[in-house]
Design goal:
With about 230 residues, the chain is mainly alpha-helical. The protein is about 70% helix and about 0% strand.
Length: about 230
């Protein structure tokens, strides 16, 4: 990318100045400008991702982790539980997982090559032997509950419109089924299948949690469009 920008800048510089020095100067300036812009955009993306994925490792964990008890926790506490479970399943440190959590959950819009490699490595390091299946199932179940609640119509009028279009009652149970059956074309998996992958160690739990949240957010946006 920088090489292309440099060449284009040099060509423009030559056309404007008619000299090799002018071509070189504008080429270098263009390359530096793009580099600075990429750095600024990347830094902004990282800051926004960390705000969207807070982690409170000091938060207490419920003695009995069930979908309801997990769903009742603040976001930062839920993320801390995910971090610990991913660290346990992958054999990585809690600090490493915490640093990569926004990337694992798909919240970072811009990644450096090194960060991308680190994320991919962690994604592929889950071991079925290290997965706490009961805890992973509770986490996924709680996230599905929250996604379903976020997807519910925001008013009785909107609920009536949705129920008329669907021909069925729209409640938390209905939206839970809609969340679980949501299919992701890029990987050809449903949310229910992804949850099974997370519980058996075939998929990274943080990736699955991030995907469930995105489905809930998408459904909530679609509900908000109904007038």
């Amino acid at each position: 990318m920088l090489a292309v920008v440099f060449v284009v800048g040099a060509i423009v510089g030559w056309a404007v100045s008619g000299s090799p020095l002018g071509a070189l100067g504008l080429g270098v300036a263009a390359g530096v400008g793009v580099f600075v812009l990429q750095y600024a955009v990347g830094s902004k993306s990282v800051r926004e991702a960390k705000i969207a994925v807070p982690v409170d490792l000091a938060a207490p964990v419920p003695a009995s982790l069930m979908p309801d008890s997990y769903a009742a926790l603040p976001l930062a506490s839920r993320n801390a539980i995910v971090v610990r479970l991913v660290a346990q399943a992958s054999g990585r440190s809690i600090d490493d997982v915490t640093e990569l959590l926004p990337d694992l959950m798909g919240r970072t819009r811009v990644q450096t090559e090194a960060k991308l490699r680190a994320t991919q490595s962690l994604m592929g390091s889950s071991s079925s032997a290290g997965v706490d299946r009961a805890a992973a199932a509770a986490v996924c179940g709680g996230e599905v509950k929250l996604a379903a609640r976020a997807s519910l119509p925001t008013s009785d009028r909107i609920r009536a419109v949705v129920e008329r279009n669907m021909g069925a009652v729209v409640d938390e149970e209905t939206m839970t089924k809609a969340t679980l059956t949501a299919r992701l074309p890029r990987i050809d998996r449903s949310i229910a299948e992804l949850i099974d992958d997370a519980v058996t160690g075939r998929a990274n739990l943080a990736f699955v949690v991030g995907t469930i949240r995105k489905v809930g957010e998408f459904n909530a946006r679609e509900m908000a469009k109904i007038r």
